[in-house]
Amino acid sequence: MAYKDTIRKKILLLLSAGVALGFSRSPAGYFRLLKAVERDWKNLNRQDIYRRIKEFYEDRLVGFTENKDGTMTVVLTDYGKQKVLRYELDDLEIKKPKKWDGKWRVVIFDVPEKFKMAREALRQKLKALGFIELQKSAFVFPYECEDEINFISEVFECGWYVKYLRVSYITNEAELLKKFELY
């Protein structure tokens, strides 16, 4: 990811975490902005931050509200919140415990044709996370991931059509055990 994209991503994620970026013309206001943020944020150039915020405004990712003390607060728009969800989706990983609990997680879906793009995006994301395709709309994974599946379904707006199953046995299980290196 390019430096510019990294800064954009960091600022959007910061805004989504509820940190209100307040801007003022005074240095005291600037440091008040940074006091709630991580150390690496303090190393960002003030002009870089302003430039990215201006780009966000032009891209309709953020809006501004004026405070009583004359400062401006940057807030995410609904469109900006969607963009943040995409960033979070890109970074999504499923934690693998040290020991497998012997249960399979099966994700099945029947997303209608009119939502074909969401269906294909869901399918690709499951594959990227390491799920194995049992059938065209059925995937299996050995570790707990219900929260992650719910999040993915929410992002792609297809949760109504997605089912999550926890099962103890699947025919031809030996093949899955081998593929997931659980033998």
Brief summary:
The chain has 183 residues and is of the alpha+beta class. It is built from eight helices and seven strands. Helix 1 (3-16) crosses helix 4 (46-58) and helix 1 (3-16) crosses helix 5 (78-90).
Question: Helix and strand layout, with pairings?
Answer:
Layout (H helix, E strand, L loop, with lengths): L2 H14 L4 E3 L3 H8 L4 H4 L3 H13 L3 E5 L5 E5 L1 H13 L13 E6 L6 H13 L3 E4 L2 E4 L4 H10 L6 E6 L5 H7 L4
Antiparallel strand pairs: 1-3, 2-3, 4-6, 4-7, 5-6
What does the model show?
Helix content is 45%, strand content 18%. Strands 5-6-4-7 form a four-stranded antiparallel sheet, covered by helices on one side. It has a three-stranded antiparallel sheet with strand order 1-3-2. Helix 1 packs across helix 4 and helix 1 crosses helix 5. It is of the alpha+beta class and 183 residues long. It folds into two domains: 82 residues, Arc Repressor Mutant, subunit A, CATH 1.10.10.10; 76 residues, Alpha-Beta Plaits (2-Layer Sandwich), CATH 3.30.70. The relative contact order is 0.12. It is elongated. About 5% of the residues have low confidence. The longest helix is centred in the N-terminal third of the chain and has 14 residues.
